[in-house]
UniProtKB/TrEMBL annotation:
Matching Pfam families: BPD_transp_1 (PF00528), OppC_N (PF12911)
InterPro entries, per database record: BP-dependent_transpt_permease, Ig-like_fold, MetI-like, MetI-like_sf, OppC_N
Chief subcellular location: membrane
PROSITE patterns to which the protein is assigned, alphabetical: ABC_TM1
Residue ranges annotated for the ABC transmembrane type-1 domain, each copy included: 221-415
Keyword Cell inner membrane tagged: yes
Subcellular localization, as worded in the UniProt entry: Cell inner membrane; Cell membrane
Residue ranges crossing the lipid bilayer per the database entry: 24-44, 223-243, 255-276, 288-308, 347-376, 396-415
Family per record: Belongs to the binding-protein-dependent transport system permease family. OppBC subfamily.
Listed name of the protein: Oligopeptide transport system permease protein OppC
Length: 429
């Protein structure tokens, strides 16, 4: 009869969950998130360690065509030097791409030097722009390699006298073509020997080293979710066995075992995290995933142990347990067929709340450099990389923070739904 009642109870819980649209939506999104994190790295072809140095800290962008140029050697000037003139500089563009912009002008024999400025979108329209170079009177060319992008620039060349006073200026507008150096193309594992290549899309942009944010989010999600699910699963199982053993034995043994629980709860997590790192020989700057998982398991089991002990102490006084004992049921039968199945509901709800807690703990420790550290990605370590560039490149902080927030929120909402659906338990008992 107890088995039939348990079957009806779980059937009722399932019906209530199916009727809760929020719970179903959370479950579907969680399954989709886990599948994306597990299968995503194999489906998204970009290597998370590949560096696109011509797209450092870029915002989300689609695929683009780029030319491959030889940018290893500095330019030594045009093949034919412009003839010296008496009045105007005649500023001209020899070649313009995002690796370099090469400018040339006619020397002015009356000028004692030149000043070169570069103006771009977003600068004050009344200004000449950013100072690029201060040149001598005999110079007639310049190669600009400073942080170029495929956008419109305006170069201004000022000819000055001995006192630095402007004599005249020459301006020219240019839009560099998107380009990639041969070295960068090889570093990003793009086909060699090509003169024109198709740069892959970066739907979430790139980080400060030119690495694809989406690829790193997917790979980092594997680390974060592994720690967030594996560690709670281990300490929940241990806590289940410990709490059940304590409740069933009872007496002085129960008091001693619960004193150990109280002692472990009082231990500081961060201190023991450091001790485990030292014990495992984790050097500064190395990822401490093993130490983090061990610390979570070693210090996380007392809460589920207390929960299970309290549930079993309540359940073993129930009438159907007494009836089973009178009918000759042994201790093992009572544990496996009645006690453990009836506490699994509470354990399951506790497990769904423990996962976001573990994910947040991993993110926090990685953020302060004690968990997963670069170059290995995790959502917490990616937030650590992005916080220093929050004002200039907010996407580097935004996307991993959203991944953590959404995952934690979904697990918490699912835990709330499970708790509400299982609220009928005590009434049924």
């Amino acid at each position: 009869m107890a088995n039939a009642a348990d079957h009806r109870y779980w059937a009722t819980v399932w019906r209530r969950l199916k009727a809760d649209r929020k719970a179903i939506a959370c479950l579907v999104m969680l399954v989709g998130l886990i599948l994306a994190v597990v299968a995503g790295p194999s489906l998204w072809s970009i290597n998370p360690e590949a560096q696109f140095l011509n797209q450092i800290a870029s915002s989300p962008i689609g695929s683009r065509t780029a030319i491959v140029v030889d940018a290893n050697e500095l330019w030594t000037g045009p093949d034919k030097t412009p003839e010296a003139g008496a009045s105007t500089a005649r500023l001209s563009v020899i070649e313009a791409n995002t690796e370099f912009v090469r400018l040339s002008w006619r020397q002015d024999t009356s000028a004692k030097g030149y000043q070169l400025y570069r103006w771009s979108e977003g600068m004050n329209a009344a200004s000449l722009g950013m100072p690029v170079a201060v040149l001598e009177a005999g110079d007639s060319w310049y190669e600009d390699r400073l942080n170029l992008r495929p956008e419109r620039y305006e170069y201004t060349l000022l000819a000055v006298d001995e006192l630095g006073t402007e004599r005249y200026r020459q301006q020219i507008r240019v839009t560099p073509v998107l380009a990639m150096s041969e070295f960068d193309a090889e570093l990003a594992s793009i086909a060699e020997g090509e003169t024109t290549i198709e740069l892959p899309a970066h739907p979430l942009g790139t980080d400060h080293l030119g690495r694809d944010m989406l690829a790193r989010l997917l790979e980092g999600g594997q680390v974060s979710l592994f720690i967030g699910i594996f560690a709670p699963l281990m300490y929940m199982l241990f806590g289940l066995a410990y709490g059940a053993t304590s409740a069933l034995i009872g007496g002085r043994v129960d008091a001693i075992m619960m004193s150990i629980v109280d002692f472990v709860i009082a231990l500081p997590f961060l201190l023991f995290m450091i001790l485990f790192r030292v014990a495992l020989g984790t050097e500064p700057g190395e990822s401490g995933i093993a130490a983090l998982v061990i610390a979570l398991i070693a210090l996380g089991w007392p809460s589920p142990a207390r929960l299970v002990r309290g549930e079993i102490l309540r359940l073993r006084e129930m009438p159907y347990i007494e009836a089973a004992r009178l009918m000759g049921a042994g201790q093992r039968y009572l544990i496996l067929r009645h006690l453990i199945p009836n506490v699994m509901g509470s354990v399951l709800v506790s497990f769904t709340f423990a996962i976001p807690s573990a994910i947040f703990t991993e993110a926090f420790l990685s953020f302060i450099g004690m968990g997963v550290v670069p170059p290995a990605p995790s959502w917490g370590s990616m937030c650590n990389d992005g916080i220093s560039r929050l004002l200039t490149n907010p996407h580097m902080m935004l996307f991993p923070a959203l991944a953590i927030s959404i995952t934690v929120l979904l697990f918490n909402l699912l835990g709330d739904a499970l708790r509400d659906a299982m609220a009928i338990r005590r009434g049924a008992d």
